[in-house]
Amino acid sequence: MPTPEAETNAPEEAEELEPTPTPETPESSEAPTTAAPPDFDWEAELNKLPPEKRWEFLVQMEEQTKALLKLSEEDRRAAVAARKEEREKLEAKLDLLDLSPEERKEKIEEVERKVEKIEEDIVQIRRETGSYFVTIRAEAERRRRAAEAEELKELTTENSDELIDLFVGALKERNPARCAAILRKLTADTNENELLNYLGYSSDINGMHKFTAEVMIGREFIKKPDGTFELGGKISKIPGTDWKPLGLEPQTAFAIENDISYVAEEKNHWGVARLVEQRFGQFYQVSEEEQAGAVTAETSKLNLQTICRQFNRLAFGGEIPTGVLRPFPRKFQISRSGLGMLLRYGGLMTKFMEKGEFGTNLAAELYKQLDVLRAAGVAPTFCNALEKYVEEKGVETQAGEAVRKAMAAPLPKA
Question: What pairs with residue 319 in β-bridges?
Answer without folding.
Answer: 332
